[in-house]
């Protein structure tokens, strides 16, 4: 993998064809190693062209299976689909077959859904992916993986030039400050929705069997085609985004945050640093009624701590609304 990546960099750095001997010399490898690297790149979807004067840099395979998988610094294999009903559904099928550590990635979803079985619009141009893993953790810690996905998505958006934040528990938003209030707060969302996360799992009472974290990101999509209040990376940065790099960054950051029990302990601090909910006045609709007050913290495994007139409440699940009069 290192030789192939170095070969791509060497080809990209030159204006014209580069001969095999020149590549071998610059990379410090044999000509046979150069040939093997070229063949490996071709198998990965990088169409390296051979000419009488040498090798020509290939076109980037872009947002595709080979594109996302190539150079990915995360322990996931990549299964790519141009069009699929649901990446979460496919990941559950793979789980039933005994698979693990697979990222199902798609350009378009036709049957995507969000929390509470709500419709999720997922047209071509987005980043729709689901990660199947089998973490050796107690069931009680499973919600941390949702928070980790929110942190990873936010970090990938920021790397792409979009200043995203997290609204509890799993919405990634853009905006939400006073200047954006007319655009962002009509539905109490607290920002323009960029991404959502849906986690599903199966296991015993005290141990996770498998876990699927689905992430849907509005990437290169016209906001006019999205539901009211939603936005996209391309709209916020006023230009297209490298979806291949975005997906890889998201997967790498998620893997880093969930790599070990010690890594899981760092998720809540990372989530707090990126949250737009903390410090705001909120209303959370739960199965037992509404909880209203100021969001002051998030506690393991992801409960929102709300300071109400009657004291502090921990909310483990519900729809959170950012109220307008928040400071």
- State the secondary-structure class: alpha+beta
Q: Please outline the major beta sheet.
A: 7 strands, mixed
Strand ordering within the main sheet: 3-4-5-9-8-7-6
Number of DSSP helical runs: 11
Outline: elongated
Q: Topology as H/E string?
A: HHHEEHEHEEHEEHEEHHHHEEEEE
What is the alpha-carbon Rg in Å? 22 Å
- Termini Cα gap: 50 Å
The total beta strand count reads 14
Portion in beta strands: 25-35%
Low-confidence stretches: 181-188
Q: What oligomeric state is this?
A: single chain
Give the averaged pLDDT, no decimals.
Answer: 90
- The helix content is 25-40%
Notes on the structure:
It contains 11 helices and 14 strands. It is elongated. It is of the alpha+beta class and 327 residues long.
Helix and strand layout, with pairings?
Blueprint: H1 2-12, H2 20-27, H3 31-43, E1 49-51, E2 54-56, H4 65-69, E3 77-84, H5 87-96, E4 102-109, E5 127-133, H6 143-159, E6 164-167, E7 171-174, H7 181-184, E8 192-203, E9 208-217, H8 233-237, H9 243-257, H10 261-264, H11 267-274, E10 281-286, E11 289-299, E12 303-308, E13 311-315, E14 319-322
Parallel strand pairs: 3-4
Antiparallel strand pairs: 1-2, 4-5, 5-9, 6-7, 7-8, 8-9, 10-11, 10-14, 11-12, 12-13
Helix pairs in contact: 2-3, 6-9, 6-11
């Amino acid at each position: 993998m290192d030789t192939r990546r170095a070969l791509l960099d060497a080809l990209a750095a030159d204006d014209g064809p580069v001969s095999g001997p020149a590549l071998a010399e610059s990379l410090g490898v044999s000509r046979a190693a150069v040939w093997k690297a070229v063949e490996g790149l071709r198998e990965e979807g990088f169409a390296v062209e051979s000419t009488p004067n040498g090798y020509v840099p290939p076109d980037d395979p872009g947002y595709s299976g080979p594109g996302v998988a190539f150079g990915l610094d995360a322990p996931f294999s990549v299964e790519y689909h141009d069009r699929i009903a649901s990446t979460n559904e496919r990941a559950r099928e793979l789980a039933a077959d005994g698979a693990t550590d697979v990222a199902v990635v798609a350009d378009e979803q036709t049957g995507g859904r969000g929390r509470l079985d709500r419709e999720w619009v997922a047209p071509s141009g987005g980043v729709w992916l689901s990660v199947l893993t089998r973490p050796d953790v107690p069931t009680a810690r499973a919600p941390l993986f949702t928070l980790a996905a929110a942190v990873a998505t936010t970090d990938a958006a920021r790397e792409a030039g979009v200043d995203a934040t997290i609204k509890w528990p799993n919405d990634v938003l853009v905006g939400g400050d006073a200047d954006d209030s007319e655009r962002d707060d009509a539905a109490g969302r607290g920002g323009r929705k960029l991404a959502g996360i849906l986690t599903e799992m199966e296991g015993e009472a005290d141990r996770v069997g498998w876990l699927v974290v689905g992430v849907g990101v509005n990437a290169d999509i016209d906001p006019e085609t999205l539901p009211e209040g939603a936005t996209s990376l391309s709209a916020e940065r006023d230009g297209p985004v490298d979806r291949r790099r975005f997906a890889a960054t998201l997967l790498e950051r998620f893997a880093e945050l969930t790599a070990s029990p010690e890594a899981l302990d760092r998720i809540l601090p990372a989530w707090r640093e990126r949250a737009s909910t903390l410090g705001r006045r909120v209303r959370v609709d739960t199965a037992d009624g509404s909880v209203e007050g100021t969001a002051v913290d998030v506690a393991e495994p992801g409960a929102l701590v709300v300071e109400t007139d009657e004291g502090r409440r921990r909310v483990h699940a519900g729809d959170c609304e950012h109220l307008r009069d928040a400071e």
